[in-house]
Amino acid sequence: MSASAGDRERVLAHAAEALARARHAIALTGAGLSVESGIPPFRGPGGLWTKHGEPPLDGWQRFLADPKAFWESRLRPEGPMRELARAVEAARPNPGHEALVELERMGVLRCLVTQNIDGLHGRAGQRELAEIHGNARLVRCVGCTSRWPREEIPTDVLPPLCKRCGGLLKADTVSFGEPIPADVLRRSMEEAELADCIVVAGTSATVYPAASLPHAVLGRRGVVIEVNPHESELSSVATFVLRGPAGEVLPRLVHAIRTARG
Ligand code: APR
Questions:
Q1: Three-state SS annotation for the chain
Q2: Confidence (pTM)
């Protein structure tokens, strides 16, 4: 039975209270945050994998086997990756991204870990940000983890090599099977260990290690606030479930905290 509007308001008010009084609140976001910016999710209604089937899970192995071919496919993406690349290029931050920036500016949110590669949190102004699956606008050295904006890297000779260590350069976007870069993994895990509250917005919470963050917070009896219009892997264990689109729910969460503060 769906909750009444009054119940939903009460749950949101209690979630806002818990978030406002947290000692160290963080957020984990996924593709659902960018749906209202015109970028399709991967799973669930309208998902890329839902439409085209799950992608091959050996991207990292294919890169290592033939980095030149990997670059060629990235420079001229086809199928679902072309659809995703076009949507990312055209996308702008939406009220969900802006609400999370507001929570940081209010001193409520200490860090945001995102699985999204679209760079929209950074463009919205989020400062304490860990892009655990990378950023499509960056290129990263697989040797020393140095990163550059992709437009600074010449692609006349493929694969491009790192000017610092001579290592192979690749899109910063983490491929399936690729280890999460050590710097961003360490930041994400440290934040999850510090957090006593985590807002989990726009993710099916199915891909690890990102999906382990809310469970780490729960494991230390912290608060998990889910923002998602649909059921996810987390819904049954979340402390608060705010059923709705991030672009609508997150601004209401900000408003509730601001009103409570007077
Ligand atoms: N607001 C909030 N959540 C939404 C919205 C919305 N407007 N629209 C959809 N959602 C929810 C869906 O219900 C779903 O639970 O967003 C979630 C999107 O889930 P996925 O498509 O699985 O995206 P994500 O969880 O980020 O995937 C994790 O999988 O394919 C890999 O590397 C890719 O980072 C990605 C990872």
A1: CCCCHHHHHHHHHHHHHHHHHCCCEEEEECCHHHHCCCCCCCCCCCCHHHHHCCCCCCHHHHHHHCHHHHHHHHHCCCHHHHHHHHHHHHCCCCHHHHHHHHHHHCCCEEEEEECCCCCHHHHHCCCCEEECCCCCCEEEECCCCCEEEHHHCCCCCCCCECCCCCCEEEECCCCCCCCCCHHHHHHHHHHHHHCCEEEEECCCCCCCCCCHHHHHHHHCCCEEEEECCCCCCCCCCCCEEECCCHHHHHHHHHHHHHHHHC
A2: 0.97
